[in-house]
Design brief:
The protein has about 240 residues and is mainly alpha-helical. About 80% of the residues lie in helices and about 0% in strands.
Amino acid sequence: MTTVRSYNTKDVDMIITIDTIIRTAIANKAYLQTKRSTWADPFFDNIRENINLVVQEHLGIDSAQSLRQSTQIVKAIQSNALNDLAELKVQILVDFEDQPIKKTEILNQLGFTTYYATAQTKDQEALINLLFQYKTNLTPALKAEIVAKGTATATLDTLLSYADTLKDANVAQEGNKGSRKVITEEDILAFNAIYKQVIGIAKIATNFYKGNKAVQDQFSFKKVANALGKFRSNLTFWQKI
């Protein structure tokens, strides 16, 4: 094989990353299409369809789809978990307001003090660490104490379930890694082509969002890929304990 990959990640990680970038483009298409006429519908949808075709023809549909779905689980968990964590934190702050030492102890014990502020910035690593510290340290006695103050048991149990779902997502990823097809030079050419197409879109979109670093980061292949890597490494670590 003489063809060199245009990217420096695993093939499946590249696919997940560019698919995530195109999802961002679709979410922002109302603005992007005002800046570039050739991006009118169904341009971005066609790109996503091309990505799916490349996956099916050159990566192996079963393993790649499972990996992508596992990553989407994290995105769904992130939004829901941050909402539920916010609800729990404000209740702890109010319910234990007259017990400042106890309040601080609970926030420390459950991971809020160390990880919550960073998790709010959509940092997946911080969210994963927070959820697993919460799961480890929410003892039956502490749970009963928080519930007695007024927090619904369902809120506490839902947050516990997020950590388990994250582990299950990682199991799905790891289990599918061994079933991928042997990659040929033709496959690499197809991967390079779709990668370059999406990177071209990302470069232009990044320029359109000057001064908006949050959105620019969502079009950065390196940042999106790094976030994926952090998510996996942390799940693998926590799965061992």
